[in-house]
Amino acid sequence: MGKGGSISDEEWARFLEEAEAGTEGAPKEPSARARSVARRLRDTPGRPEGWRTYRPAQRRRGKGWYAAGLLVAVGLLVVALDPGMVTGWFGGGGGGGGAPLAAESERPKQAPATPAAQRPTVEEPFRGSPAARWGDGAAGIHLPAARATGWMSRTRVEHALDRSRDFLAASSLDPGVLRGERPGKAIASLNPHQEDVQGYVASAFREPGRKNDPLLLFSRFQKSKVRLAGDVVKTRGRVTFREGKRGAVEVTADVTFVYPVVRAEADSTEVARTIVRREIVMSWDDPAKVTIEPGTFSLASYRVDYTNGGCGTVTGYFAPEFGPERAAPGPGKGPEVDPYDRSTPMDARMREAAAEAGCATATRS
């Protein structure tokens, strides 16, 4: 099959029947571990690490921990700001800050400017934050123009890009998932034949831990502790694609999500923001070469870096802190990190995290 070609519905159906029947020569199950190790060998010097591996924090400092790996990594940043400058979770997109920004079609060259310090409110949960000018929900995730790539025609690539953004919405924007519900729609997008990924997902929701933390892929809050401050999540980021291994279309999403929340009590009005940056690589594989179900992708790698999401024991939920719970800035609190700065590639952010002991300190929320 030539590059850019497509397969007919009849060929697709025959492929599925042969794969299910175990026909000799049927395509092999994709290995996310193998794919990630190959990526690391190609892109990063040094000893390769496996898919979903991580480097534990060497010591604790301040009020948190920072665990990071080069392919799949978690960064837990303790927000150390004056409570008067702290902000919140979903909310009507108010907050001023000027006209909405144009979509992010390429990596920015610097961090966004810091707006005037203003306390967020339930009515304006993004007040005083650069996110006030970001897009609402999936609208803030830029998709490139499609072109024929690998085994896919232009139309199929366009469909894969749309489905990739749908996965981001189902995993990180769906209101039910954010309230702690199981992300069934998002999980259904993952290749069911990719056993390592399916094992991770099953363990993450059955018994979450640092190696099997659902927060690596999904955004969840415990509704008994926090609730939404409105109905908008601000986002900024972009999706890119290229030809991957075996002619697959490899889609990479690099997106920052800003969630405003208040405590669960009905009369709570203090808003705090949890800021999550995710990089997810989705491989839309050629079914003639890889065992995969129509409409699903193989997970190649994922990384996440988040601010004010909790630290210490892994519960499977973000645990934002409010007011006096927050760590105070000062000596020994680790390097400073701007959670709104998207000019640094995730590779570099993860390497910095791995090199540091203890927690980083967020310069703003």
Task: Write a compact overview of the structure shown.
With 365 residues, this protein is of the alpha/beta class.
Would you kindly provide a written description of the structure presented here, covering whatever features stand out?
With 365 residues, this protein is of the alpha/beta class. Helices cover 20% and strands 18% of the residues. The chain has one domain. Strands 1, 2, 3, 4, 5, 6, 7, 8, 9 and 10 form a ten-stranded mixed sheet that branches. A hairpin with an 8-residue loop joins strand 6 and strand 7. The chain is globular.
Query: What would the principal axes of the Cα set say about the shape?
Result: globular
- Please summarize the sheet with the most strands: 10 strands, mixed
- How many helical elements? 7
Structural class: alpha/beta
What is the helix content? 10-25%
Proportion of strand residues? 15-25%
What low-confidence regions span 5 or more consecutive residues with pLDDT below 50? 1-6, 19-96
Summarize the helix and strand pattern as letters.
Answer: HHEEEHHHHEEEEEEHE
| First-last Cα distance | 50 Å
Mean pLDDT rating: 78
Number of domains: 1
